[in-house]
Amino acid sequence: MEEFFGSILAATFKTSDPVNMKKFLGIYLNAEAKTFDAKWQNQEQQIIAIMRDDAFGAKRVPVGELHKIDNADVRQSFEPGVDLAARTTAMLKLFHNMRAALHVPDQPPEKAPPSSGSGRNDAFGLLAAGLLNLPQPYSPIKFGLVWNIDKRTWVHWDGNTKSPIARNLLASLGLGAPLHGKHADLQFEMVKRQTDLTEKIRPPLYPFAIDRAAAQRGAPLFASNCNSCHGGPESDKRLYSVAEIGTDPHRAGMFTQKLADGFNTFLAELGAEGYRPPKEVGVRSTCKYFAATLSGVWARSPYLHNGSVRTMQDLLTPSQQREMRFHRGSHVFDEGAMGYTDEGAYILDATASGNSNSGHDYGTKLSAAEKRDLIEYLKTL
Fold it and tell me: pTM value?
């Protein structure tokens, strides 16, 4: 999703250059090359003047607001008499609307954030920049738990959000629901329905064969190596500092009290048909990580909050011996190691900022046989 939106946004910025706009319009209008070139040459100076005056289509509309555009103005055809200057103006307005819907400024950043790769993004970093105008250091995370969230009072990797509807409203805005001042242009009932459905999702059962004898031997190993953090009631007692667990600090450290206050104010002032602002604070800063229940953990690889450890077998290996580079995006499951194979288009580099695979050295001193038994037990959860 991040790469999809990123590629769209990059394209809207690149078309602020007349040379790129010409290439785009020729393809977009499905025009015969010679005819299009002649038409462009006839209007080129007019088009250049338009783009020099307002390359991002943002001058004649309030910040964050959308232009009203008629479908005919952006028709995808090269009919006789088409006005390329007018079509260029309409496309610049459309590209502005696309950026505004995603709460992205019309001026491109000096440096784009790195790609997070399959199954990861910098969710709160994007929301902080887009909704609060508070850019944060790049802090990639893998997708959060989507099952049994009704059993948790505070969700996300750091236990920072209490209100389920607030969580999904922020997600809706982050994924493109327009914001007019402080009023969200969205179907609140659909957000509410989706929120209610997410509260009912349960973990998937392991779909392959399980060595039941090994799993039985692994049960006491789980009790002595994992349960003290990942078991018991889902309360704040499961919040652990970076100093305690030694994992990458970026995500825990980036969500400060200033950000929490900003999101609480945003949600209190947000207007949307059917939405009632919360009566109590629903976002907080913990600067810690939450040890989630391990139900369905077999389906959660790569592991750690930033997805920097490819398999459970790797996670049970001392951190200094874990692989520092691997591919993400595979759909092939390694049953023995409990995780996805080292395949895919994206290469995760654990030496890059936010990608550290250090810490969480629990269970690393077990023997190879004990680790196998523990992995078999984890498949039963």
Answer: 0.83
